[in-house]
Structures are given as C-alpha cells and as structure tokens.
Amino acid sequence: MNEYDSDYLGQVLVSSNYLPTDNPKQADVILINTCTVRAKAAQKALSLLGRMVPLKKRNPELILGITGCLAQQEGSSLMQRFPDLDLVLGTREKERFESFLKRISTSREKIVAIDMDGPLVSPLPNNGYFKGRVKSFISVMEGCNNFCSYCIVPYVRGREVSRPPKEILEEIRHLVSQGTREITLLGQNVNSYKWDKTYGFSSLLKEVNKIEDLARIRFTTSHPKDLSDDLINIFAELDNLCPHIHLPFQSGSNKILRLMNRRYSRERYIDLIGRLRQVRPEIAITSDVMVGFPKESDEDFQMTLDLIKKIEFDNLYSFKYSDRKGTSAEKMEGKVDDSKKSSRLETLQRLQKDITLGKNRMLEGTRMEVLVEGYGKRNGQLTGRTASNKVVNFSCNNNVIGNLIDVKIQHAAVNSLQGILTNMNH
Ligand code: SAH
Ligand code: SF4
Predict the structure, then answer these.
(1) What domains, with CATH codes, occur in the chain?
(2) Which residue minimizes the CA distance to atom 5 of ligand 2?
(3) From the CA of 149, which ligand is nearest?
(4) What is the pLDDT of residues 146-174, one digit of tens each?
C-alpha cells in the first residue's frame, strides 16, 4: 500500500516538473513515506529522517517532508522533534500534496496536514510514470473497521472506504497499456470491498479478469473471518487469478485469538485452508504470525507451532509483538519479555524454514510458468515469479522481461528457485 501511495506522490512530483534522483544530496524535495505497524518500522523511519536533517542544514532550500502512517499518528509533534521538517502529510491528505509543495517553495511555510476526512486519491493523467512496469499494485479500498487489539491501522488509516469499480478498472487498463502484466489489488481487508449491495469483491475480481492482456491477478490482504464461500470458489472460476492466498492467522491459540479480537478460531482457520485446497489443490498459502502477544504462554506458543505444522505454509511473515500507542493490547497485562519473544521467534522461523525448503524442493525437476520481472542479482540472470509467487532466477540472453515463459526448476533454496529456460510462451 505504501508503494502505491509513494507512486501517487511520485507522479505529483513528476507532474510538477521534478525529476527523480538516487542521490539524496542532489534532491530538492525529500518526502519519507512511513509505516508504523510495528515499533521497528517506526524506528527505521525516524532514523532515516534523522539522517536527512544534515542535508537540510547544507541546503536550506530543500523541502523535507514526512508522510504515511507515522506522520498521521504523530502529527505536529514530529515538527517539534525535527524543526527542520517542512511538511507532515497525513494518509488522507495526499490530494493536497501539490498545493502544499507550492506553498512551501514560495513562502517557506511549515505545514502539518493530518485531517482524516480527505478523499481517497484517484490516479493522475498519464505522464508516462508507469511505463514498462511489469507488475503493479492498486489500492481498491483503504482503512479498516476491525480493530484487532494490537493494531494501529484503524487509527492511522481511518474507517473502510472502497473506491468506485469504474475508476479501478480504468486505472488497471491504463497500467496494462503501459506494460503491466500482473496486478495486485490492495486493501487492509480486501474481502470487505463493497461498492453497493450487490457489488462486492468477487464482482470486482470478475471484471478485472476480463481485462485483455492482463495475465495475472493477485490480491492482499484477506481476513479469515471474512473469507466467504463465494470468494473461495472464485479461485476455481477465474483463469487469471493466481493460485496463491495470503491469509494471516496471527496465532494458533484460541485464547490468544480472542484477546486479539480476531473473531475466528484455529478450527475455522484450518477448515478454510482445507476448502481452499479442495477448490484449487495447487494453491500456495502464506500468512502472518506474531509471537509474544500479552499473556501468550508456552502452551499457546506450542499451539502456534502446531498450526504451522498442520497447515505447512509456503511462507510465513513472522513478527515479535510490539506495543502500539492507543491500541487496547497496549494496556493489557501479562506482557511477554523480549528475550522470550526472540527465542520463540527463532524457534518458529527455524520450523518454517524447513517447511518452505521442503516444499520448494518438491518443485525440483518440474516446469513452471514464470512472469519475468527484471534482472536478477547475478550477472546475466533474469528473475521472475511463478503463479504461486515463488521467486525464480534463470539465465537468458534475450530480453524477455514482461513475458510469460516456462522454466525447468533445477535447484531449490529457501527464498528462491534456480531454473533453466525451456520455452518462450507469450
Ligand atoms: N490487514 C492485515 C494486516 C496488516 S498489518 C490483516 O488483518 O491481516 C501486517 C501484519 O503486521 C499483521 O498481519 C501482523 O502480523 C503484524 N502486526 C500488526 N500489528 C502488530 C504489532 N503491534 N506487533 C507486531 N506485529 C504486528
Ligand atoms: Fe489491523 Fe488487519 Fe486487524 Fe485491520 S484486520 S485491525 S489492518 S490486523
């Protein structure tokens, strides 16, 4: 979502005649887009901001700004802490970015804008910004109404708002005309996308599936409590919908799930995965999980490990729980100390690593269709992903970026597969 937002703000800068640079020392505008979902993300953003301050001292004309969820959360206190900041731009203030830039560059005003009533932004007219991008993201909704007890998102992104289908479809068609072959529909809880009584997320997916020259569709993130039969069945129905779902489970203990206010049980989660696998046997399952939520006992943690073994996820994003200001979990008793969180995380990650590697090894010797995204890290190599979202690196002398090709998998590692080209498809 932040990538999508950064692109919107990047487009505004390009339309205002700024050019991108990789070197912050050359920049006339630096805007840091931030995340505050976990303490570590917030600390990283603040330390980056701290490193940019000396540039402002050297070049007083530089416009230094901060945006995203941390900006929304902290507002004017950021301006007090970093007096060199010119702009604090909230998550629903993106539409006014251009006018703020003008005001700052003409009168050196300092601006804090964090109203939550602003509109969701619509894409800007074509200025070539997206040319040649094989894989794109698009926000279809923003905000969240769920209030999981640990989560800051509802406070910094506001309540759920869905974008009009017509606008979403037009934006995707535009991206496809610029070279996009794969689109990921984004929302904190995409299952709740709703335009009117009869037009929900499945209706949107069906329309996106009809867009010509778009080869792959993905979406993220789904919430287990809202994953309907309708949406499960759609995995068998739509030919362009990739066989992959990211379905965060957070904990394998019903006691912890209740404290998290997730509103599903481990039994329901296992049942959902069973149904998904029934409808689309090759479906890849990835998930998010947390360790060290308040009151998480050794038994609760064992239940999480047990669920991981039962499901055998293709991949897991795992985190240590961290307090977020103003959430209800922040005020809970029974906090788990950091060393215990670290050792649980290590145990969990070791287990998942073996599962991921085992699953990847089963692909050795098979042929997989890969959408080529760009150059790999090694010389002469290209990189892409399978429909199940696994990274594949392979050697190729032709420029096949943007093509779907067949690759025979020769070697599997935890984070990627190595293969050889067998067939150029289309
Ligand atoms: N909307 C998505 C998740 C958004 S946040 C969902 O409902 O699943 C992405 C992930 O960050 C979450 O799935 C969770 O695992 C993690 N996360 C959120 N708040 C956290 C916190 N306070 N501490 C640690 N991890 C957190
Ligand atoms: Fe946060 Fe996701 Fe829960 Fe919403 S559904 S409160 S974004 S974890």
Answers:
(1) 2-113 (3.40.50.12160), 367-424 (2.40.50.140)
(2) 146
(3) 2
(4) 999 999 999 999 999 999 999 999 999 99
